[in-house]
């Protein structure tokens, strides 16, 4: 017989009472920039340089972008300039799923969240424009994109919002907080700090290795931020190298741009859009590097430049100050190197080395560009695939893989066409999924697991088995703790074997009544 995991009982005798909710306290930060943006259609990106004592020069895009306002009920339903960062769907009481698959952001609206008599249009978007970044207090750093969902309507149940993050959480060196902005103004407030929850906390945050799952009834803007506990916290940064096509007919100069971004799937969207306007090409696969709290800058050096070429400014080394990365104000922070040809050499190769000062870990980009008219094999979206011959240590071993990577990056520059499905449940995109647990099945599972048992093998043990029991009292405040836990399970477990694993959990809990419910409702051949 499987040993039953031990679960500590809640100190409260009232597991299902819903307390009166109080508003969260303000955090120490300045108001964010207003979301009213000036039009700059047709303008070219303007770059401003910064120089520090280490002869470091890096640049931040300052172009303002017009963001059209959606026809959705809320005025803050801003449609980003990249269509892959926005989706909307009309949902009924049956619920649904809004998914920005390339960015790893999603919104699960469970059955019953929208009233039975209503159909509601909801949206989900990533706000990559710099003006939406929160201005953080000293020591705080942004760990996720700014995600907006809405409109801010009254819901009957909590939704589950998935937001990727770039914090290395394995060593428990972070104090993680979720900031929220109601969008009617530009103030950011602290919705929850992990480990400091109370029964009045309106947001539950399940922090997994690469993503946070927010369980909340408030449709709003959210962002994940963190503060180093011991001064040793680590976040992941993404490095991306861009440059123009090498062409001696037009210029003897060559500019290389090295972007340093938060390491999330959506962080490259702004850069691809900017480089598209500049005529730039991705010179190598984007790579990740760890960046530790403590004040050390990021070092970027240009080495092994091929014969006939040299650094134009006689400087091939730059440093980006720690604070400008830990408290970045831009989604397209980068440094640039200018090269010039002093004799005709139609091949340019160089190595870019990036590391945090005083740390051994280093990322190396080995790039070769040829002015020979070679064209990389095009794909269906090959309009933006580089037309220069570009090689690196990685790509030489697998050229086909490189072509696929370029194709993926090119796709992100194209509008994403989506088919719509119109049913009695409303209108949704084709990447919508069906909830694994039907309403009758859920009801029976809740009847099994909601009542507290002396052995503790009820909803509390289920939360423990699913590793969502960090703040168990959040579920205790819900009318049905089991139902809320299963909503979170739906959002976190999308693998094909999820139901099989859930059945095994019920077996380990020795809740064979729940196992029988699954078998009876799903049939004998569902495994």
In DSSP terms (H or I, runs of 4 or more residues), the helix count works out at: 10
CATH architecture of the largest domain: Sandwich
Helix content: 10-25%
Strand content: 25-35%
User: CATH fold name of the largest domain, please?
Assistant: Chondroitinase Ac, Chain A, domain 3
- CATH class placement of the largest domain: Mainly Beta
Cα(first) to Cα(last) distance is: 22 Å
Domains (count): 3
- Report the average pLDDT across residues: 78
Specify the overall morphology.
elongated
Question: What's the gyration radius in Å?
Answer: 25 Å
Helix/strand/pairing category: alpha+beta
- Which residues sit in consecutive blocks of at least 5 with pLDDT less than 50? 1-57, 60-78, 373-432
**What oligomerization state is this entry in?**
single chain
The strand count comes to 28
């Amino acid at each position: 017989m499987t040993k039953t995991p031990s679960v500590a009982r809640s100190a409260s005798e009232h597991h299902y009472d819903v307390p009166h909710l109080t508003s969260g306290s303000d955090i120490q930060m300045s108001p964010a920039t207003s979301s009213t943006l000036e039009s700059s259609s047709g303008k070219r990106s303007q770059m401003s340089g910064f120089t520090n004592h280490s002869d470091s020069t890096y640049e931040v895009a300052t172009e303002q972008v017009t963001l059209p306002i959606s026809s959705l009920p809320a005025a803050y339903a801003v449609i980003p300039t990249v269509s892959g960062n926005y989706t909307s769907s009309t949902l009924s009481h049956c619920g649904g799923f809004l998914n920005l698959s390339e960015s790893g952001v999603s919104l699960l609206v469970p059955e019953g969240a929208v009233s039975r008599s209503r159909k509601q249009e909801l949206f989900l978007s990533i706000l990559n424009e710099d003006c939406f970044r929160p201005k953080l207090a000293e020591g705080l750093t942004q760990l996720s994109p700014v995600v907006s969902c809405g409109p801010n309507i009254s819901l009957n149940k909590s939704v589950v919002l998935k937001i990727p993050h770039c914090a290395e959480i394995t060593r428990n060196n972070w104090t993680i907080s979720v900031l929220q902005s109601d969008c009617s103004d530009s103030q950011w407030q602290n919705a929850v700090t992990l480990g400091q929850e109370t029964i009045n906390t309106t947001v539950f945050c399940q922090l997994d290795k690469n993503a946070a799952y927010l369980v909340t009834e408030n449709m709003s803007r959210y962002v994940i931020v963190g503060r180093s506990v011991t001064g040793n916290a680590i976040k992941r940064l993404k490095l991306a190298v861009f440059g123009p096509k090498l062409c001696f007919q037009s210029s003897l100069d060559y500019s290389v741009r090295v972007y340093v971004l938060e390491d999330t799937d959506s962080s490259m969207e702004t850069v691809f859009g900017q480089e598209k306007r500049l005529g730039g090409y991705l010179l190598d696969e984007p790579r990740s590097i760890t960046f530790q709290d403590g004040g050390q800058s990021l070092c970027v050096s240009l080495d092994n430049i091929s014969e006939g070429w040299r650094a134009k400014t006689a400087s091939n080394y730059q440093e980006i100050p720690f604070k400008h990365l830990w408290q970045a104000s831009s989604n397209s922070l980068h440094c640039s190197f200018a090269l010039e040809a002093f004799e005709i050499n139609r091949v340019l190769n160089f190595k870019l080395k990036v590391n945090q000062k005083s740390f051994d870990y280093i990322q190396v980009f080995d790039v070769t560009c040829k002015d020979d008219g070679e064209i990389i094999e095009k794909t269906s979206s090959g309009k933006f695939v580089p037309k220069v011959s570009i090689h690196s240590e990685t790509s030489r071993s697998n050229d086909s893989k490189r072509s696929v990577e370029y194709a993926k990056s090119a796709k992100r520059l194209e509008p994403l066409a989506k088919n719509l499905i119109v049913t009695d449940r409303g209108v949704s995109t084709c990447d919508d999924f069906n909830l694994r647990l039907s309403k009758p099945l859920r009801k029976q599972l809740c009847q099994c697991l909601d009542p507290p048992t002396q052995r503790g093998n009820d909803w509390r043990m289920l939360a423990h088995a699913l590793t969502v029991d960090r703040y168990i009292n959040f579920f205790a405040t819900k009318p049905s703790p089991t139902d809320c836990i299963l909503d979170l399970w739906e959002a976190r477990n999308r693998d094909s074997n999820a139901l099989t694993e859930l059945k095994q959990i019920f077996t380990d809990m020795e809740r064979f009544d729940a196992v029988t419910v699954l078998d009876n409702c799903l049939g004998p051949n569902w495994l």
